[in-house]
Amino acid sequence: MPRTLPTICCTFLLVMGATAAGVADDAIVRVSPDDVGPDSIVYWQGEYVGEVDAEQAGTATTLAAQVVAKRGGNYELILYQGGLPGHGWDAAGRPNRLTAKLQEGTLAFDDGQGVQYRVAQGKIAVARDADKPLGELKRVFRTSPTLGLRPSAEAVALFDGGNVDQWREGAILTDEGLLEQGARSKDDYGDIYLHVEYLLPYWDNDGRTNSGVYIQDRYEVQIHDSFGHPGGKQEDAALYTFRAPDVNVTLPPEHWQTFDILFRAPRFDAASKKTENARISVLHNGILVHDDVELPHGTGHGRRHPETERAHLHLQRHRGPGLFRNVWLIDGANRWPDAVRKATLE
In whole angstroms, what is the distance from residue 111 CA to residue 122 CA? Predict the structure, then answer.
């Protein structure tokens, strides 16, 4: 049985000042904040960690923040005591949320109690009454420990950037060798271990980018730009409309993210009567967010289809642009691959 969340809450790789992965595309901007100026939302949006003076206790405490771009030059600052979600923050606590507007190249938040948070040049300066420094948060770039995980000997490489031969309708290969949303696998699968890497751009249209990994075209692990959101049954890594992830560890747009999924298909007797429900475990960016969850039926629109022992995989095209790479599975798997277990569950 996979271990529970608290034992693996720090499996992210945390890199100070690293650049974000990206490829060129006229419609989707994927750049490092180190490469752009303050006119770009990428310059401001991101994650920050540091030590601040706790004042009342007279000691330093770890404080983390997420700066989230909204529409019209508006931003939200989410403050987490102890560290970032999945990386030190106690998910039982409630983060503090502040809002501000980017004005004349300045982004500063005020908590209404005299503490200000000024964002600039990859740092957040924390001060009381603007003149008493309390500490500084530095920008960090988290990376999933399973990012770039290569297929094992028994795996089926569904997409490695070379071609779309393992997919039927809807499979579109970009000039950069990435797979767009909408592909359906040619073959049907039952029990599987599945590895998926996906990238969501910053897309501020009628709503953030929305996709999903549909196992057997019935059970959806949601893909959504949920960076900074509280999390929920329709957010990133949710079992869509059925169960929210234990913690929202969605990275900012422009970052490659991972799902590692262990799925056990429903069982049927000789008369095609279901005898056991499907079950699923999900690692999102290396964090266990669903631990052997029983699925009595399909999720979301997947409930429209009768359950079966084997069916195809669907990378949903719902709303907004999204890209995939390094998609592979082990057919008939009944446990985590050793490489995944060692990187995340031990």
Answer: 20
Report the C-alpha gap between 136 and 180 in whole angstroms. Answer: 39
What's the token pair of residue 324? 């995939």
CB 283 within 8 A of CB 341: no
CB atoms within 10 A of CB 15: 11
Q: Give backbone dihedrals phi and psi of 221, rounded to 5 degrees, phi first.
A: -95, 110
| Residue 302 near residue 296 (C-beta atoms within 8 A) | no
What is the pLDDT, as a whole number, of residue 276?
98
State CA 47 to chain mean position distance.
13
DSSP state of 338: H
Tell me the residue type at 26. Answer: D
| Residue 129 buriedness (CB in 10 A; 0-12 / 13-18 / 19+) | exposed
- Which candidate, 71, 67, 72, places its Cα nearest to that of 108? 67
Residue 272 class from Cβ within 10 Å (0-12 exposed, 13-18 middle, 19+ buried)? exposed
Tokens of 258: 């991972």
Chain centroid to Cα 337, Å, comes to: 21
Comparing 319 with 314, the larger pLDDT belongs to 314
- Residue with tokens 């000039």, as numbered in its chain: 175
Distance between CA atoms of 110 and 129, rounded to whole angstroms? 9
Strand boundaries in 27-105, DSSP class E: 46-53, 60-69, 74-81, 96-101
Query: Cα–Cα distance between 258 and 165 in angstroms, integer?
Result: 22
Report the alpha-carbon angle 110-111-113, nearest 5.
Answer: 110
pLDDT tens digits, one per residue of 132-190: 999 999 999 899 999 999 999 999 999 998 889 999 877 889 888 999 988 999 999 99
How far is it, in rounded angstroms, from Cα 62 to Cα 60?
A: 7
Q: Is 281 helix (H, G, I), strand (E, B) or coil?
A: strand
Residues 127 and 60: their CA atoms lie apart, in Å, by 14
Are 224 and 210 spatial neighbours (Cβ–Cβ below 8 Å)? yes
Strand-strand pairing, 46-53 and 60-69: antiparallel
